[in-house]
Design brief:
The chain has helices spanning 3-6, 26-40, 43-52, 58-68, 71-82, 85-88, 92-101, and strands spanning 107-108, 118-121, 126-129. It has one domain (3-104). By secondary structure, the protein is mainly α. A 3-stranded mixed β-sheet has the order 1-3-2, covered by helices on one side. The longest helix has 15 residues, at 26-40. Helices cover 46% and strands 7% of the residues. The two termini are 27 Å apart.
C-alpha cells in the first residue's frame, strides 16, 4: 500500500458518524485502548493485549484514528504500534500518515510522566518512560 492510498483515509468521517457492523474489532479496541487505557486498565495491560493481536487492518485503523480528532492520539498510537509493526503487519505508510497528522509540539505519553524518568522519542515528539520495555515480559515492546 502506498502512502498516497492511505493518506485520504486519515480524512474519514468523525467518530460520531462512524458505523461498523462488527461488534468488537481489534483495530477499534486498540485505538480505544490507546486513547483511554488509564480508565480501562494500565499501560502494561494495553501493551500485553496489543502483543496478542496477530493483525490490524491499517486502513480501518487510520479511519478510526481520524474519527477521534485528537492529534496526540496519532503520536501515541504511532509510537506504541511502531514497536509491533512487524507482528501486526502494519506498513510504513501507516506510520507516515500518523506523523503527518500529529502536532508539532512535544507531548507526554501519559499524565504524571513528568515526575518519572523519561526520554524523548524524537520521531514521535513524545516523552515516554525510560523503562517502558520492562512493562512487557516477552520483550515485544522495546523503548528507544
Amino acid at each position: 500500500m502506498l502512502c498516497g492510498e492511505l493518506r485520504p483515509l486519515f480524512h474519514a468521517p468523525r467518530r460520531d458518524h462512524y458505523v461498523e457492523s462488527e461488534v468488537c474489532v481489534g483495530w477499534a479496541a486498540t485505538v480505544d485502548g490507546i486513547n483511554d487505557y488509564e480508565k480501562s486498565g494500565s499501560l502494561e495491560e494495553l501493551l500485553r493485549c496489543i502483543g496478542m493481536i496477530a493483525y490490524l487492518d491499517p486502513v480501518k485503523l487510520a479511519r478510526y484514528l481520524h474519527c477521534y480528532n485528537k492529534t496526540i492520539l496519532y503520536q501515541k498510537a504511532g509510537y506504541i504500534l511502531e514497536h509491533y509493526k512487524d507482528a501486526l503487519k502494519l506498513p510504513d505508510s501507516f506510520f507516515k500518515g500518523c506523523r503527518s497528522e500529529m502536532p508539532k509540539s512535544k507531548r507526554y505519553l501519559y499524565r504524571g510522566l513528568q515526575r518519572e524518568p523519561h526520554i524523548l522519542s524524537k520521531g514521535w515528539a513524545l516523552y515516554v518512560p525510560v523503562d517502558l520495555s520492562v512493562l512487557t515480559r516477552k520483550g515485544a515492546f522495546i523503548s528507544e
